[in-house]
Design goal:
The complex is a heterodimer of chains A (about 190) and B (about 240). With about 190 residues, chain A is mostly helical. Chain A is built from 8 helices and 2 strands. Chain A folds into 3 domains: about 45 residues, no CATH class; about 70 residues, no CATH class; about 50 residues, no CATH class. In chain A, helix 3 crosses helix 4. The relative contact order of chain A is 0.11. The chains are: A mainly alpha (about 190), B alpha+beta (about 240).
């Protein structure tokens, strides 16, 4: 056995190298890597944290139930609010980046992390601060209803230059229920959504 | 206690390893959303699409998509009677501001909204050298942008051209199926903004989702089925000329 000492010393070196490998690996590989597969499991939760900008028609209908009622009777019943009004949000100032521990700060020096997404304030959360801009119907309506041979045949289409001659669409049509002669009580002119 | 230098050298790293695992703790969990209960896809109804570009603009707004890149876009096909295999395809700025008026002439026109197909066997996730892109347990192809190197292999591997390299982040970017929305019970931004219902988010694991009735009663198709990608963007009314 006295001649085998050098083998044990050599094996000890391997053990030390393996332990060093485990330490380095423990620091370098993210904690959730491999949780669901060959990727960082925590990434799924991070992607799910992105701010929402389109609040969804259910949110709008919570306050604007009169317009929702008007819409259900017309051809635009299934056109969601934000399809025309757009996403009603406002970017807030970005928060300072998190400080992190020594290792994370060291990594941030080498690979600067992407700036954090600015927080979002929705019209539904603060109706006074985030106010919608009234869409220009001459542009908005024409986007969908300008006649083109490429559009489905059953879809209502007009030639904007001949149909109204520059008169805004809402003069005759209530955008929320566009058939002429339909209920106009929720039209902008009658004090509905502006 | 008498510890030799050699023992100390062996013990220190061992203690560091042990402490690292003590510190790691349990992985974070999402309390209100169970990934195992969902399997997401999309239904695209081509005869309903009017090419207004609402979906493209909504996606750009919701996801801060840089100008000139698209997570979703709309193509307009023009197929003449005898030129089935060589259709004329246009997509000016991804169809974001709509399309030029088409004059009535020979052949047919139709719009094809395109987006990530969220393939179950996606070629793009298989080529990633670092595990930065993956199919989530609920069937959405996602990118971990803090892990992505920006090598662009996945951009080349996607048979549908649905990925791009982000011009300022220098990492791959693509449709997340609005993962931040669907996990909160909302629909995607493109579905929310589509005025004709040409797009419909589908949860294939939800037995009450109307997608099941639609798939049973309508002929649907996926893009490039010969590539066996397990695409989950189901197209109704897809013309054979679409590539």
């Amino acid at each position: 056995m006295k001649d085998a000492g050098h083998l044990f010393r050599f094996a000890g070196l391997f053990v030390v190298a393996f332990l060093v490998f485990l330490v380095v690996r423990g620091y370098v590989v993210p904690k959730t890597f491999g949780q669901y597969g060959h990727y960082r499991g925590a990434a799924i939760g991070e992607i799910a944290q992105h701010p929402v900008k389109f609040a969804g028609h259910q949110t709008c209908e919570g306050c604007h139930s009169d317009i929702a009622d008007t819409k259900t009777k017309g051809a635009h019943a299934h056109v969601n609010c934000e399809a025309c009004h757009g996403a009603l949000y406002q970017n807030l100032p970005a928060p300072p980046p998190p400080k992190g521990n020594l290792y994370e700060r060291f990594v941030a020096l080498i690979v600067p992390p992407p700036p954090p997404a600015p927080p979002i304030l929705l019209h539904a959360d603060d109706p006074a601060t985030v106010t919608p801009v009234k869409p220009d119907t001459l542009v908005l309506c024409a986007r969908c209803h300008t006649a083109s041979a490429a559009k489905p045949k059953g879809f209502p289409q007009v030639d904007p230059t001949q149909h109204m001659g520059g008169v805004p669409c809402e003069t005759c049509h209530n955008p929320h229920s566009p058939a002429i002669g339909s209920d106009t009580s929720a039209s902008p002119a009658a004090g509905g959504a502006k | 206690m008498n510890i030799s230098r050699r023992h100390m050298l062996i013990l220190l790293p061992a203690a560091a390893v042990a402490w690292k695992y003590v510190e790691a703790g349990e992985p974070e969990a999402s309390p209100n959303y169970q990934m195992s209960e969902h399997w997401w896809g999309m239904l695209i109804n081509i005869p309903k699409c009017i090419g207004c570009g609402n979906c493209v603009r909504a996606c750009q707004t919701e996801n801060d998509v840089p100008d000139g890149n698209f997570r979703t876009w709309v193509e307009r096909y023009h197929v003449t009677d005898t030129e089935m295999t060589t259709p004329e395809v246009i997509s000016p700025d991804g169809g974001k501001e709509g399309f030029p008026v088409a004059q009535e002439d020979a052949g047919k026109y139709f719009f094809v909204p395109k987006m990530c197909n969220h393939c179950a066997d996606s070629p793009c996730t298989q080529v990633c050298p670092v595990g930065a892109t993956f199919v989530s347990p609920d069937g959405v192809v996602l990118i971990d942008q803090t892990y992505c190197l920006g090598c662009g292999y996945c951009v080349q591997a996607c048979p549908y051209g649905c990925r791009y390299l982000h011009p300022t982040k220098h990492v791959a970017d693509k449709c997340t199926l609005c993962y931040h929305r669907i996990t909160k019970g909302l629909t995607t931004a493109c579905c929310e903004a589509c005025p004709t219902g040409a797009r419909q988010l589908a949860d294939l694991k939800n037995p009450n989702d109307p997608i099941h009735e639609f798939l049973k009663t309508h002929p649907v198709e996926v893009l490039k089925p010969q590539m066996a990608t397990g695409a989950k963007a189901y197209y109704y009314g897809l013309d054979g000329s679409v590539r």
